[in-house]
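Onboarding guide, step 5: your first structure request.
Type a short instruction followed by the sequence, for example:

Predict the 3D structure of this protein.
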Amino acid sequence: MTSSANQRFASELVEPAAGLSKDLAAASLALARRFFAGGTMWCASPTWPFHANHVAVEFVHPVIVGKRALPAVTVPPGEDLVATLRATTRTGDVVLAVASAGDEAVASVMRRGRAWGVETIWIGAGPRPPAGAANHVLWLETSDELEASEQVVRIYHLLWELTHVCFEHPGLLKPADLDEDCTDEVCITCSDEGRLAEVITVEGDEAVVRAAEGRERIDTTLIDVPSPGDLVLVHAGSAISSLETGGEEG
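The system replies with structure tokens like these:
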């Protein structure tokens, strides 16, 4: 799609789709910041793998002279999505998925984003995922599959173009330091906040978990015995709540 075609589509994003315009702007800025800091984007679409391939090619091989190539990788269809991304993503990466709200594998990846330290972008159409399902939800209010597929392509073309617009404004690319005013040993602002983590191994009353800050060993005596793959909230070195009703494979 040409830049002018993107601009025409963007101009059509008015009410009731004004929310999509804002979501696209926020996702593009977040994506630019992740790329600027050295992150990689992982693209997945279990049902429509051609969309994942298209997104990755769009970012790796820009069609406009002078635009930088950005690291993007396709997750092959048929792979265990959770296990594959758990093993390959690093803190600071991005996971972008094109899928319906009912795709359980994608939903499972998205809810692990904070624990893995990755930014999550979910593109789709029809019934929306629940609020907070991903960092950025770029959604079309249509149930027509042909229309949805065409407009999804336009959405990630715009995402690519707006990401490069952000690169043209270097002052935007350094994320605000939310803790820059915190000088206490224990931050007053975040002292009661539980951090999301994913259980890796369980050893008696302790577990090794993966959080955005890296791996750590925590105490699990305050919750039921977790299983590998479970998501827990961690505070002061202890799991204070489990987000699972049972162990989750993958």
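Each response can be followed by summary notes, for example: Residues 115 and 211 are 4 Å apart (CA to CA).
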